[in-house]
Each structure stands twice: as structure tokens, then as C-alpha cells.
Design goal:
The complex is a heterodimer.
Chain A lengths: L11 H22 L12 H12 L1 H19 L5 H20 L9 H24 L9 H25 L8
Helix pairs in contact in A: 1-2, 1-3, 2-3, 2-6, 3-4, 4-5, 5-6
Chain B lengths: L8 H17 L11 E6 L2 E7 L4 E6 L4 E7 L2 E6 L6 H4 L9 E4 L4 E6 L11
Antiparallel strand pairs in B: 1-2, 1-7, 3-4, 4-5, 6-7
The chains are: A mainly alpha, B alpha+beta.
């Protein structure tokens, strides 16, 4: 037997990311269990975790948590590398980029609700773009844009409110898990 | 409402902007264009192409007799048909591009066309 030479040191940050990603994956599963009248219209509950992480621990941690969530969520739900996976990945990428910009907005005026709505619109925008360019190369894809936009507005607001409440109720000193 | 306490002034602005985006994209639902013309076919050949601007009635002769088509601003329908099952008559008003009423026994069809060509199906 060869003794293992690779020693993986787990930092507190790693543990935190793992915990938060687990919470996000759990919410993804809840999300998938909620029946939807239209594919693409989903509450996106896991984004609550992303928002809390973004505000508490910064953008890099949020990227880690979101990325792991998309990966683990797709493996658990069985759509890894299927079109749905790339849609989720694109949506997440777009919303993370938007969040990266939007978090520089003055916090006194713009709270988690703003971040949530902006991210939700970026998410659906990215997905529609990918769907148009790759999956359904026809402008008919955009026919349902108003429905998706309305869903983004409603769910973005609700998720943002939940994230705002979590942030207000969990003191900053305590680790969020 | 205690939930409202979590909204900051700018959040209202973002919500309003979001609502504006929704309102702006709303016309996408009518992307197929508005109903502009009725295309009446007899035996697969175009019998008449009528602008859906005014009110008029068209009689289309077929093997079983005459099919009566009514045109109104923005819509059209088959009023009477000699066919046995009357499917095309019971379909009622056609008002969206791509909608079609087919009176198969009498070889007559009425289709609504918009600015752009509407698709029956999409494959990918």
C-alpha cells in the first residue's frame, strides 16, 4: 500500500461553500418538484441562497455556490449535459455576471430585492438567447417572452424579499447554513 | 405589511423598470402579426384573398354546393356549408394569423394570414 501523498487541506471557506451549495441544491430539488404550467417558469428558490451568499460573503463565493448547485442539481435530477443543463448554466452565468455589476449599486438605495430582480431578468434573458441561438433557431422562441419576463419580475421580487429577510434575521457573525 | 420593510427606495425603481420591461415585451405575444387577410381556397387553389378591413360575404362554389364565408374587420368565419358535419361552421370566428377552417366535403378552406407567414409547426 502506498501512503497517500496528496493531502487535501479543507479550509473554513471550503466548508462554508459546501454547506451553502448543499442548501442551494436542496432548494433546486424543491424547485423541480413544484409543478410548472410552462417549462422555464420556475420560482428559482436556490437563488435565495445565491443572494444571501453574495451579500454576506462576496461574489467569488456566490459563483462557487451557484456553479456547484448547477452541477450537483443537474446530476441529481438527471439532466447533466442535456439541453436543460446548458440552459441552467447560461442562466446562472448571466445572472452572476449581472450580480457582479449590480452589487456595486449603493446599498442604501438598492437592496436584495433589486439584485434578485436584475438577476432574474438576466437569467431568463440568457436562457432565451441560448434557446434562440442553439435549441430553437427561430424567432418563435420570443413569443412567450412576456410570460417569462412577468415570471422573472414576480419570482425575483419574492425571492429577493425572502433573501432580505434572511439577511436581516441572521446576524452577520453567525455562519449561514 | 412587514415584508414591505425590506424594500428600499431603489427597489421600487427596479420593480417599476421590470414592469416596464414586461409591458414592453407584451406585443411579442402578437408577434405573428395581426389578422390582415383571409385566404379562401377551393380545391387547394386560391379562390379569393380578401382584406379583413370591411364587412362582406363571399359565396364559394364547391362539389356539394355553396359555402358562405363572412368577412368582418379583423376576423372571418364560415357561415354556412353544405357539408354533413359542419365542423368548419362550428369553428366560429377566426381572428389570429394561421387559424384555418376547413370544409373538407366541399373542398373549401378559409385561412387567416398576417403580415408575416405563420408557421403550422416547428421542428428542431
Amino acid at each position: 500500500m502506498t501512503a497517500s501523498v496528496t493531502e487535501l487541506t479543507v479550509t473554513a471557506e471550503d466548508r462554508r461553500v459546501a454547506w451553502l451549495a448543499t442548501a442551494a441544491v436542496a432548494l433546486s430539488l424543491v424547485d423541480a418538484a413544484i409543478p410548472s404550467p410552462l417549462p422555464g417558469v420556475k420560482p428559482g428558490l436556490a437563488n435565495i441562497v445565491t443572494l444571501v451568499v453574495l451579500v454576506r460573503y462576496g461574489w467569488a463565493t456566490a459563483v462557487w455556490v451557484s456553479g456547484l448547485r448547477v452541477l450537483a442539481g443537474s446530476l441529481l435530477l438527471g439532466y447533466f449535459l442535456a439541453p436543460g443543463f446548458f440552459l441552467a448554466l447560461t442562466g446562472t452565468t448571466f445572472s452572476l455576471l449581472t450580480l457582479g455589476l449590480a452589487r456595486h449599486l449603493p446599498g442604501r438605495w438598492f437592496g436584495p430585492v433589486s439584485l434578485s430582480i436584475l438577476a432574474a431578468f438576466a437569467h431568463i434573458g440568457g436562457q432565451l438567447l441560448l434557446a434562440r441561438l442553439w435549441l430553437i433557431p427561430h424567432n418563435g422562441v420570443f413569443l412567450l417572452t412576456p410570460v417569462f419576463a412577468a415570471a422573472a419580475l414576480v419570482f425575483g421580487t419574492i425571492n429577493g424579499l425572502i433573501a432580505a429577510r434572511l439577511l436581516a434575521e441572521i446576524p452577520a457573525a453567525e455562519p449561514v447554513r | 405589511m412587514r415584508w414591505l420593510a425590506y424594500l428600499r427606495p431603489g427597489d421600487w425603481l427596479v420593480i417599476a423598470a421590470g414592469a416596464a420591461v414586461v409591458a414592453f415585451t407584451l406585443p411579442f405575444l402578437w408577434q405573428g402579426g395581426f389578422a390582415e387577410r383571409a385566404i379562401i381556397r377551393q380545391d387547394g387553389q386560391i379562390f379569393a384573398e380578401i382584406d379583413l378591413g370591411s364587412r362582406r360575404e363571399v359565396t364559394v362554389p364547391g362539389p356539394l354546393g355553396a359555402t358562405l364565408v363572412a368577412i368582418e374587420p379583423g376576423r372571418a368565419r364560415v357561415v354556412a356549408d353544405p357539408g354533413p358535419r359542419q365542423y368548419c361552421v362550428r369553428q366560429g370566428w377566426l381572428a389570429r394569423p394561421g387559424e384555418i377552417a376547413i370544409c373538407a366535403p366541399n373542398h373549401v378552406s378559409v385561412q387567416i394570414a398576417g403580415r408575416t407567414k405563420a408557421y403550422d409547426s416547428l421542428s428542431y
